Structures are given as structure tokens and as C-alpha cells.
Structure prediction request, 943 residues.
Amino acid sequence: MAKLTENTINFMGVRRLASFGSLTAVILSIIILAINGLNLGLDFTGGTSIEFAYEKAPSLDTVRQTLDDAGYKEFVVQNFGDEKSVLVRLRQDFDNQLAENMAADLRANGDKVEMVRAEFVGSQVGDELKESSGLGMLLALFVVLVYVGMRFQFKFGVASVLPLAHDVIVVLGVFSLFQWTFDLSVLAALLAVIGYSLNDTIIVADRIRENFRKLRTGNSEEIINHSITETMSRTLNTSGTTLVVLLALFLLGGEAIHNFSIALLIGILVGTYSSIYVAANLLIMMGVSREDLIVPAKEGEVGQQSEEEEPPEWLNRM
Amino acid sequence: MLNKFPLWKNIVILVAVVIGFIYALPNLYPDDYAIQITGARSSTQVDQATLDKAVDALKQEGIAVKEATLNPPNGLIRVNSAEAQLSARPAIQEALGRDYLAALNMAPTTPDWLRSIGAGPMKLGLDLRGGVHFLLEVDMKSALQKRLEVYSSEIKRQLREEHIRYRGGDVGEGNTIQLVFRDDASQNQAFDLIRDQYNEFLLDKTTDDNGQQVLTLQLSEKKIKEIEEYALKQNLTTIRNRVNELGVAEPLVQRQGRDRIVVELPGVQDTAQAKRVLGATANLEFRLEARQDAPSSATEVYPFRDNPDRTARLEREIIVTGENVANAQQAFDQNGQPQVNITLDSTGGDRMTRATRDAIKRRMAVLFIEYRTETVKKRIDGKIQEVEERKVNRSIISLATIQSTLGSSFRITGLDSTAEAGELALLLRAGSLAAPMYFVQERTIGPSLGQKNIDSGVMSVTVGFALVLLYMLLYYRFFGLVANVALAVNLMLLVACMSILSATLTLPGIAGIVLTVGMAVDANVLIFERIKEELRLGVPPQSAINAGFSRAFVSIFDANITTLLVAVILFAMGSGPVKGFAVTLCIGILTSMFTGLLVSRAIINLIYGGRKVEKLAIGGKLANG
Prediction:
């Protein structure tokens, strides 16, 4: 039987500091969100798109430079359909002047440019989509709460859902702070973060449950410390491999998935932290104890085996 | 024996991996740029002569043709590059004329033997590969006009019922109805009646030049907005239904601004058909043939659809329109001729009964109304320019004698072909439009929607994947290699499943794959760490392997099930991009559980199982039993 104190890192020793840190991060994020709001991408806000037809296929980089020099902000330049058509999307609302002015700016360097189309782009996701995505996210969190509550214990349910909310709020806060564009790809990244962080939290929770049942000594804090230590190399390796992928995505992925990979990078760092310091911390705060998890002893039998979570029989047959 | 799979289990795993390999294979063949030629009407077939004409046109333009194939009723011409494709389309369209549609397409190059077992590549979403983008404009003027006509006849009927005499009433300029009265008294009576019952109108009493009393009903702004809103929503629903009939994965149908609808069909294979089905803003009207003595002001003359020289005089009054159609099915009559069986909703059925009750032995016409945009070459300021013109084409599909009072079910016969009957039924079933719509824009979105970014995105995922392989190899050595094989198999199975389900891969979908790569490794990391722990506790290697797999299973199972629950909910609730993410996540979780638990176990069993293992090394350190 492993000794509790040996090689165990005292993670929970700094739990008050961590609670303070997490709480500060969440409150700060909410304040920043309230003040700055999110810099919603064209996907959510809609905006203006103007299509230009060039006589000769222009270099998109040059077009971007020209518009940048002319003082336009937050625009996206792309080919639309063929190489000679250039679509410029802007955050600002459409007015007739805007398209005219932009065409004039693009013509300034001698290119033959004609404005083909200028229109207001409605929200790409639409209210319907936004609503169902938001509702879906809430429902997902609720189902996680119920499942984990049933499979583990109610305290674990709360301890696995709150870190998810923590992660989402902090990532949103960072996006709000730096005013990075929040578009559909970032929303998807956020969902990926939820999935990842949940995975992480469950692994730690699973070990905590196992150790509560297996180890006869030690208080909750010691057992949790021991469990986190045991799962540490797994946590580091999985986070490591995922971060490696994301780093590659971030450095090589280009503009379109830039914000997506930033959201995932932050989310996974925060998610790894939160499954230790938010989830485990919450368990201690809610006073999780051996009694919460102990399988009712059968006729005084205190054998270790009956208390372990048994893998299903079919797996053993494999 | 510990750690030994029975033969059948190894075979099952092997078969699953081989099937996965075969179905993932088509994704390695890049799509060809192609032009698809389809008949503008379903009765028009593309034949070899037409195809040759198109190929000749391309030769004249100096565009190299890779392959021209005829797969009736369509023709497909493959070219070498995106540029060639873009210039080939107008050339072909010009050569073939209005009877055919030439559309940009991406043609899969899956070899025949793969296609014969139903394998095909994964579809890429609009954000990754492009697809078709349509912009449709709803004709609001016509929606309002139509609605005002209904109001006008309703109000006139009420005036007659109340014995208020009027001389005439017409829908006028600026969303008004103008009623003309002989005297003040009836004007006032009408004023009171309309004010009480129709608060959507602003009323104005005037006297016209001829000294007649005129009551002008001006539709309120609020009501106009309401009607427009309704028309747009109705058309949106109709377009959605039609898109669904097309069987496109992850389509986007969305309003844009006040009167436009965007349709995006990612990776759509048959763009020409899409355009025909969406673009055929057809409607039907059922009208009685005019009596011989009917005044010409109450009748209209229309040609027949299959024979424009033949015409018939119909009453102006419409019995029912396509809006009242509840269902329409293509069928055959006793002579094997194609027909369409129509079921009307209750309102439509009532109206049909009322109209046909007194009209037995008279003839009823089915009027087919097509709205379309035609490109006409015109000389403007001395230059020839292409101008888009909107045309309304009304023609009679059938003119049949009413044998008995018709109810809510009846049929249309006299159609050209089975194909035409099928298309008409589809259009009727998919709902009719509240107002006509016109294509104001049609594009096939090339991969240009961030092509460069997507390329580098895919590149970075590949690099990331390679780094993960390296990481696992360095950290877990031999066991890392096993995990890497499992990871590669996992990715292959994921791609295979997505291909089999013809799921559409989108940018958010790639997010799901990235997460899957992380989580699939996670299963093996958990197992290996568990085996290490067991070894540290002094458990012999064989038992440690077994215990590692079975103990880690609980964690893997719980973690994956919760994530799967989240993914399933997101799939059910979300739409568009969120759905794309959820699909890959769901499939990825399932495949990673398969590979993480079974494939890696099978490999380890093959190597270590059934023999005496003295020492087991996981990673750099040697853990001695």
C-alpha cells in the first residue's frame, strides 16, 4: 500500500491562494466582459461586404496594404469566386459612400477597379443558431452535472461543471481584454475546451474516488493531493501532446484559425489548471469525505476488492 | 492465458482496420475541376452531340479538356485547373444556349472499384473547399400586390353583403386600394365598415375629377412590414424544404437584410440541379376556362406549355394556388401515363369544392407560373452589355373537363414525362413561394475563402500530429510506438466513418479532430501510466499490463461518456458549424475508444502475450518486477 505522504506533492497546500486566484480571474473576466464586451466577428454581428472586380487579378496582400494605408479597420480581403473579384468585408454598417470611397482608394494606384456589389451582410449564424447553440451548451453542462452526479456523487457533479464554466468565462475574458475577434471558429474552440477540460476533470475525479475507497488513512486533502500526484504524469503528457498540436496550429495555421488556436491554447492551459485547482478545491470546500463514496459494506466485509470500482465484466473477458 | 486475444478477436480488429483503410482511401484522390451540363428542364437530356458541342467550344477557347463523360441525363467535362474551370463555364453556356445549364462542379476521382463498393471522399464544407452560394431576392412588391388583391376582393364581397353599393375598386399605387362610390352615404357606410373591421388600413375620403366619391385605403407601415416579414419567412421555409429535397449536407439557408435569402450548399456535387430546383420559383394556379360569353375584362389568354401556338381563355379568378397544396406525389394512371396526385389543405379543398360544384362539364386549367432571370445582351451606350431581365412565364399545363365536384384530392394529368411529373411533384411538395424570387447572384465559392489559410492550417495539423507521434515515441519508447500506431489507425477510422456517413468536414470539424487526437493519446497515456504504477507496486509484467488496461478503463469510459454526452447534445441542438464540430467529436470519441483500448491492446498482446516477460520497460526507465 502506497504511503500517503511519500512522493506526494502538496497541491492543496496552496488551495486558498488558488481559490483566490480563480475567483479573481473569473470576477475580472466578468468585469472586463461587462466593460469591453466581446469583439464579435462578422459571423455574429453581420457587417458590410463589398465586391470589386479587377481587370487584372490583383495581389490580395497589396489590396490589404492599400486599404490599411487608407485607414480602414477590421476588414477581411478575399477572392470571391474568381481571382479578379475581391471581396472586402467590414465591421461597420453599409452606406453608399463607403463603397464609393473604397473603390476610389483602390483605384488610386492605377488599378482598374469596379465596384460590383455592395451589401449589408446579415448575421451569419442567425438568431436561431445562436439561441440553439447557447441553449445546447447549457443543456450539456446540465447533463454533465446529472451524469457525474449519478455516476460519482453530487458533489463531484458540481465539481466538474463549475470548472467548465470557469474555463469558458476566463477564455471569454481574455478575448474581451485583448479584443480578439470572437467568431464561429472561436465558439467551436470553446466547445472543444469544454470537452477537453471535462475529460481532464473526470480523470482526476475518478482517481480521487478510487483512492477514497482504497486508502484507509489520510484526510480528504491528503487523498486528493495523492490522487493528483498520481495522475500528474498523465495530465502533463496529455496536455503536452495537445499543446504541441495547438502550438503547431498557432504558429503555422495562418490567419483563419489564429484565434481558434489561441482560444484552445488558453482554454487547455486554464482547463488543466482548473481540473486540479478548481475541481479538487471545490471538492474540499464542499467537504467531500470518504462517506460520500464508500460503497455500503456488505455484511461487514471490508475487503479492498469489493470497494474498488470494478471494470465491467466484458472487459475482463477480452 | 493472460494477455492473449482469441484468434477471432484479432481477426475482427484486423477486418475493422482494413475496412476503415478502404473507405478512407478515396480521400487521397484529389477532386477534379469540372463543368457539369444539365438540361434546363428535366425533360431535356444531355446527349453526345451536346457534349461534343461543348468540347468544341472549349477547344476554340484554347482550354484543355481532361475528360468529357456522358452520364445521362447529365454531362461532365473535367478540366485541369481552377482558372480553366472558371473560363470554361461561360464558354460552354454560350455554346449550348438557354436549354442547358452549365455549372461549376468538383468531380471526385475515386477509382471505379472503390466507387462500386460505395466508397467516396469526405465532403469538405464551404469554409474549407467552397461550394455554391446563391443570393435570392424576394419580390416584395409582388407579395404586397398579391395580398392587396386578396384584401380588395374580400372587402368588396363584404360591401356586397352589407348592400353598400360601389362602382369599382382597384389596387392602386403606393400600396393602396381605391374604392369608388356613387354618393356620400355609401362612401360613409363603407368608411365605417372598413374602419371597424380592417384596422390595418388608413382611410382617406376624397372626390375625384369626375365628381365621384373615392375611398382610399392605405396599408399601414406596420402591416407592410408584417406582410414582407411573412413573405420572407414563408420563402425561407420553402427554400429550406427544397434544399432538404436536394439532400445537401449542412446547407445554409438564411435571410440577408430585408428581402434577400442566402443559400450556401457546401461541397454540392450537382450544382446545376440545385439551381434548377431552387430557381424554379414556380407556382400553380387552378382556374376555370372562361365561358363563351364572358367579358374580356374578366378573362386572360394563355398558351399551352408544350405547344405555345395553342391557347386558351381562362377566367381571371383564381380558385386555388400552390400555397394550398398539402402534398403532391408522382404516379401513373391506368395507361401508364405520368400524373401528379395532389392533396390540398382544408381551405384549398373547400374552395375547390365550392368552385367546381357549379362547374361540372366545364374545363379547369392548371396554370404553371415560372419566374426566372434571363441574361440578355443589349446595346447600351454603343457597347454590348449583359443585362439581367426578370421574366414571368405563364403557361397551361393541363386543361381538363371537370367530371365531378372536386374535393381536396385530385390529380393533374397530361404531363410530358415521368421526370417532369417528378419535378412538378417535388416543387409542389416543397411548398410554394409566398412571393416570387429571383437569383440576384450565383457563385461557386472556390477554395479562395481563405485557401492559403486552410492550406497552412492542414499543414500545421500534420506537423502537430507528427510532433505528437515524436513526443509519444520519446516518452514511452516502444509503448509510444504502439500508441502511435493506434493513433494513426484512429485517424484513419475517423476519416473512414466520416466518409461512409458522408459527413461534411468543416473548420470546426477539424477542431473536433484535434481534440480527438489529444484524447485518443490520452487513453494510451492513462493505460501506460497505470501499468507503470502497477509495476512500481511490484506486480509482475503480465499482470501489470492486464491491470493497467482494466483499471484505466473506468477512467477512460467515464471521461469519454461525458464528453460523448456533450457532443450528442451539441449535435442535436446546434446547427451549422456547431453540428460539424459535434459530428467529428462524436465519431472521434468512439473510434478513439476502439483504437485506444482494443487496437493497442491487440498489438501489445501480440508482442507480450502468452510468454514469460521478466522485465517490462515503459518509457526510458526500466521498471523491474
